[in-house]
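YM 10:42: Extracellular solute-binding protein sequence, as discussed on the call
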Amino acid sequence: MRLVWTIKYALAAGIMALPTAAFAEAVKISYLTHWAPETVALLEEAATEYAKTNPDVAVTVRAVPFGDLLTTLRSQGGGADGATIAGIYDLWLPELARDKLVAPAPETVATEVKGAWPAGVVSAASVGGTLYGIPNEIDVYALNYNKALFAEAGISGPPKTWDEFKDAAAKLTKKDAGQQGFGMINSWAAGVVHPFSSLLVSNGGDLVTDGKPMLDSKAAGETFQLYEDLIKAGSSDPAMATADANTTGPFLDNFVSGKTGMIIMANWWESALKTGMGEKFSNIATAPIPVGPSGDKPRSISYSWMTVVNAGAGEAEQKAAWDFLAWLNGAKSGPNGSSAMANILMSMGILPSRTSDVDAFKDKLGSEFLSGYVSVLADAKPFPVVLGGQEFSESLQQTIEALQYGKVSAKDAQTNAQTDAVSILERAAK
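YM 10:58: structure's back
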């Protein structure tokens, strides 16, 4: 969409005199995202609103599938032909900043972000203390469960401990009916690693501490063992677990159709559930991650997304990009006292990360589905944003999948995961 005022438009509107800037060619900036068409349309609507007071900036939006997003950013590099703005997963930031593909935020933007966002979210958008973008969504994990299946199995409420979790999974499993108690994910790195990691931190463990992998800890060993126990008990079937970043495939289908009793999943997939389940969505509730034997309270892994600016763009384009992003994420740019970005995120069931946006949407965030996620925000642990983070995640995915399919024992999976993680992070840090 081109958002440019022209002389013809101005004359047609009856404007007798225009500022000099209105006659100059608009500064053109582009925004690269992975959002679906209906969400892209909302972003374009926001850009249209911005253009009402900024007619000298033309914003275009381009979308690519999530799986192509990082490749697109890297293939275009930091050159002037690349997108001016891009939405990125915070795990990618250290490499993009190291390779000088993204620009540090101007001081005015950095000051605003540090004062209006939680410290942990700001940290995930920074490298070496330098802020590189504006955070938008934050995602956490919670237990999703089917209340109708729980009632059929005689289970009164969501499990709070791992023992209760394994017991509920066993009761929900009906092999002759093709029903599993707990649904794992395979074939998608974040989908495999994040639920496992949420159970790990709810067991008192960590993935990485001070840049060092911690997969050789007692807490990690117990988490690998939990997966092996669920698989050996028949409570989780890897053949029902395939998914991708859009959650299409057996993982979603089996939960939607009532063939899976429990899953661990992020808040953003609310829209997929609603679309797939219709009226039966009311059967779904959320609860904190069950606490493991070495844990003290329910915890979750969190990760965030942010918008960054191409370091290779021209000076005028970079300035226009930061100005647009500051408006898009600014307080009260949206229709209900929130930011325009938060309004877009909430349309997808995604939690906004700006503090004032959480307040603006407190009623909707109190729904039966989203309240389970909001309740774990305070104790969530950010997925480690380190050099080599993406490779680390993909390697851990492969190890967990090998465990799911019975190719390795829990003990061997732990050893392999730690060995690979040490090698990857040490190599990345050089």
